[in-house]
């Protein structure tokens, strides 16, 4: 065995228990010029998201008459990973993640209320330590909420995996590259519907159910956290406007 | 607030916003006449400036700079390279300024902003003309190995005076840069310091160190109106006035370069001198902020080592 991912005491490499998520931190309204923006941190993974729109469609030929056009771009800072990597923009991985983020957001945005408009979602990874996909979806979801775009529900995402015969929640980079399966889930928590489910590597079906269940619970926990952040932010805004008095 | 009053204040807000959009120059001039800027600062002042270093654990040196709303994040990654034949004892610093689509509504994904290469080039020129870093500091083994420092500066929020903020982030990240401890073999192979010494008998250890910094360059962008000079303009002011003069100096006010990329207002000698005086004042202000940020970081280092 190359690496023990779980110590005999049942602790993971970074000291967490198997079903524990990393510390979450989120901030709203971090970019002044954007219509909505947010940073989202899961442990050492840190991403920043900005939403511009709804505005008129830039490329008229792409305009949709009955719904909003959602665009998404994912990029990574050159210093976000251990080894410096170049030419991130437009490579296959970023294109794929952009697509995944866009589609999971489209499931939540009430696009039919905003016909002939365009919504731009930009996410930028400042630090990568596993789970960037989930962090990006969470950040994008908060930024959309901050922009006041009508949504059915917030989208919360979390990854889970299976290593050393144990289901693990919210994998970090070391665990992610440990060769086991990596299941990313994005959930609409109020509707209790899954908008994204991705898995690579082999996993027996009965194990998959356990891992999936764990990931689902992670999403619910993250959704609760996001809801609190949004509530806090709304309170602050209401107070600043003088609508609420203490 | 009663409902009626509330509605009235909303109406005024809308009117003000409309005036601001339709007559931007008149809007700005109304403020300037009273000696203030739209964001509330006095005419000749820069926005509040915040520098924090060492915020990125993956990078060998990093800094975040906030200039009002303008936010820059700079990180340095090191790689080992073979030095050129002409300069066998020198490393290299490669600066890249980037504006990801998040930073402004005017940046379109996929299309490179015109500003990116311009600011990159200006930072590069500032580093070389100020000689802030002696490239021989990046030497590992003469003729065999040297450090290549990739410095990426990302604009996270673009609200005017980008070069000022980017250059400050560059300088702070380089001040924060710590060359790691390495071991070098006779034939110039560089290994992490923890490598097994038994295997390579001819191993030479090189201690971890910070760079010795020379004169630190800074920039002050001034937006020029026929009657007024506005240092450190916001994006709105830059867009209205269209003419800027950028002065590059070090903290003590020694001039490195001047940059006035065209514009509607022609600069007289006295305008340039005024800009220069503003830069000198700004230099003193920045020196304090810069030293505090960097010294704080070094003190933290010392505490960790103890």
From TrEMBL, chain A:
It comes from the Eukaryota. One of its GO terms (molecular function) is RNA binding. GO terms for cellular component: cytoplasmic exosome (RNase complex); nuclear exosome (RNase complex); nucleolus. The lineage of its organism: Eukaryota, Viridiplantae, Streptophyta, Embryophyta, Tracheophyta. Belongs to the RNase PH family. Keywords: Cytoplasm, Exosome. Residues 20-150, 153-217 form the Exoribonuclease phosphorolytic domain. One of its GO terms (biological process) is poly(A)-dependent snoRNA 3'-end processing. InterPro entries: ExoRNase_PH_dom1 (IPR001247), ExoRNase_PH_dom2 (IPR015847), ExoRNase_PH_dom2_sf (IPR036345), PNPase/RNase_PH_dom_sf (IPR027408), Ribosomal_Su5_D2-typ_SF (IPR020568), RNase_PH (IPR050080). Pfam families: RNase_PH, RNase_PH_C. It comes from Ceratopteris richardii (Triangle waterfern). It is found in: Cytoplasm; Nucleus, Nucleolus. This is Uncharacterized protein.
From TrEMBL, chain B:
It holds the Pfam family RNase_PH_C. GO terms for cellular component: cytoplasmic exosome (RNase complex); nuclear exosome (RNase complex); nucleolus. CDD domains: RNase_PH_RRP43 (cd11369). Residues 47-180, 216-280 form the Exoribonuclease phosphorolytic domain. Its main location: cytoplasm. GO terms for molecular function: mRNA 3'-UTR AU-rich region binding. SUPFAM superfamilies: Ribonuclease PH domain 2-like, Ribosomal protein S5 domain 2-like. It is found in: Cytoplasm; Nucleus, Nucleolus. Keywords: Cytoplasm, Exosome, Nucleus, RNA-binding, rRNA processing. The keyword RNA-binding applies. One of its GO terms (biological process) is TRAMP-dependent tRNA surveillance pathway. Belongs to the RNase PH family. This is Ribosomal RNA-processing protein 43.
């Amino acid at each position: 065995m190359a690496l023990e991912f779980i110590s005999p005491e049942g602790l993971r490499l970074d000291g967490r228990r198997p079903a524990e998520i990393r510390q979450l931190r989120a901030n709203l309204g971090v970019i002044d010029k954007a219509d909505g923006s947010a940073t989202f941190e899961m442990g050492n993974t840190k991403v920043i998201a900005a939403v511009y729109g709804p505005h008129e469609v830039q490329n008229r030929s792409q305009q949709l008459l009955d719904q909003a056009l959602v665009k998404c771009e994912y990029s990574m800072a050159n210093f976000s990973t251990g080894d410096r990597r170049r030419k991130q923009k437009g490579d296959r991985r970023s294109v794929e993640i952009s697509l995944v983020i866009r589609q999971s957001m489209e499931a939540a945005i009430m696009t039919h209320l905003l016909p002939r408009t365009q919504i731009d979602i930009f996410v930028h990874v400042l630090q990568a330590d596993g789970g960037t996909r989930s962090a990006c979806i969470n950040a994008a979801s908060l930024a959309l909420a901050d922009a006041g775009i009508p949504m059915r529900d917030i989208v919360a995402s979390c990854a889970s995996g299976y290593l050393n015969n144990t289901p693990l929640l919210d994998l970090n980079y070391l665990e992610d590259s440990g060769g086991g399966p990596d299941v990313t889930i994005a959930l609409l928590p109020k509707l209790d519907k899954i908008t994204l489910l991705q898995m690579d590597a082999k996993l027996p079906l009965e194990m998959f159910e356990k891992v999936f269940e764990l990931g689902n619970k992670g999403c619910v926990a993250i959704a609760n956290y996001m809801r609190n952040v949004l509530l806090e932010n709304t309170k602050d805004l209401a107070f600043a406007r003088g609508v609420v008095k203490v | 607030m009663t409902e009626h009053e509330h509605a009235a204040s909303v109406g005024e807000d809308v009117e003000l916003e409309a005036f601001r959009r339709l007559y931007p120059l008149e809007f700005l001039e109304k403020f300037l006449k009273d000696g203030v800027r739209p964001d509330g600062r006095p005419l000749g002042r820069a926005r509040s400036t915040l520098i924090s270093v060492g915020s990125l654990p993956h990078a060998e040196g990093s800094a975040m700079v906030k200039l009002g709303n303008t936010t820059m994040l700079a990180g340095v990654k090191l790689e080992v390279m073979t030095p050129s034949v002409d300069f066998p004892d020198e490393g290299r610093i490669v600066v890249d300024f980037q504006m990801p689509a998040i930073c402004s509504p005017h940046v379109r994904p996929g299309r490179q902003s015109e500003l990116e290469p311009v600011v990159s080039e200006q930072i590069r020129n500032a580093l070389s003309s100020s000689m802030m870093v002696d490239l021989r500091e990046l030497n590992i083994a003469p003729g065999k190995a040297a450090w290549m420092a990739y410095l990426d500066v990302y604009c996270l929020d673009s609200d005017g005076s980008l070069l000022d903020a980017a250059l400050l982030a560059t300088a702070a990240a380089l001040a924060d840069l710590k060359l790691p401890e390495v071991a070098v073999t006779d034939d110039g192979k560089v290994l992490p310091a923890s490598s097994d010494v038994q295997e390579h008998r001819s191993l030479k250890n090189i201690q971890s160190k910070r760079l010795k910094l020379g004169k630190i360059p800074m920039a002050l962008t001034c937006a020029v109106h026929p009657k007024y000079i506005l240092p450190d303009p916001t994006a709105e002011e830059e867009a209205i006035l269209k003419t800027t003069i950028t002065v590059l100096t070090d903290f003590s006010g020694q001039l490195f370069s001047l940059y006035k990329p065209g514009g509607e207002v022609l600069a007289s000698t006295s305008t340039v001198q005024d800009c220069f005086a503003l830069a000198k004042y700004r230099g003193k202000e920045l020196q304090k902020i810069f030293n505090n940020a960097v010294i704080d970081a070094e003190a933290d280092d010392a505490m960790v080592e103890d």
